[in-house]
């Protein structure tokens, strides 16, 4: 099996090392793992692509490249310039922090997996929720490291992928904020929504009088209701959410047509 991996935390991020180990286990001794990751952190860029300027890429080692672009740029670079053949699978992550709930909409990790799916490659995003029970242990990515390969294998073996559809499926996996030994089973969930203020801004003036705006996050450990990803993670489960790039509100089409 040939696997292309990327992330949004950057080529030197510890979560990428975790993903490399997961990918190597899934690919097997005769497989290939190719890494194409951002040269610098790209958190929050969502599905951004560098459409208006070129992307510089650098080979750091065999099958290991850094790109001065977004995770989606990295997937495109891997598919169309670096890999000798198309991969069987794209893995994006393991993100430092959860990509559950409304975080999905901002996540470069999700963007990398989404681009893989748009290109017709099976794709999975993996993220590690952080909290008081795992943030300060020796390996905060422990839950993902221990359970990641098995979750990927199960998805490859049993999950639908939407082949032949306009927008194929990809999967969003979040590991709970706990040690690996306390992690419970997989819960298939919908995307939740934290009923908080979400992202905000804080302004600050520099010593030279220039104005800067800092994006601020909000409380992450907020229950989002039964059957949702955040709630499953807070209950010590690994959440798996099927996703598509199609943003159409299908449930509204019939009523809107009647109204208009």
Automatic annotation (TrEMBL):
Coarse class of the protein's main subcellular location: cytoplasm
Catalytic activity: a ribonucleoside 5'-phosphate + H2O = a ribonucleoside + phosphate
MF-aspect GO terms: 3'-nucleotidase activity; 5'-nucleotidase activity; exopolyphosphatase activity; metal ion binding; nucleotide binding
HAMAP family: SurE
InterPro entries associated with the record: SurE, SurE-like_Pase/nucleotidase, SurE-like_sf
Keywords, in A-Z order: Cytoplasm, Hydrolase, Metal-binding, Nucleotide-binding
Gene assigned in the entry: surE
Keyword presence, Hydrolase: yes
Record-given protein name: 5'-nucleotidase SurE
Natural source organism: Celeribacter halophilus
Pfam family, one: SurE
Cell location: Cytoplasm
Residue span(s) of domain Survival protein SurE-like phosphatase/nucleotidase: 3-196
Cofactor note: Binds 1 divalent metal cation per subunit.
Positions of a divalent metal cation binding: 8-9, 43, 95
ATP-binding as UniProt keyword: no
Gene Ontology annotations for the cellular component aspect, listed alphabetically: cytoplasm
Role of this protein: Nucleotidase that shows phosphatase activity on nucleoside 5'-monophosphates.
Lineage per the UniProt record: Bacteria, Pseudomonadati, Pseudomonadota, Alphaproteobacteria, Rhodobacterales
The protein's Enzyme Commission number: 3.1.3.5
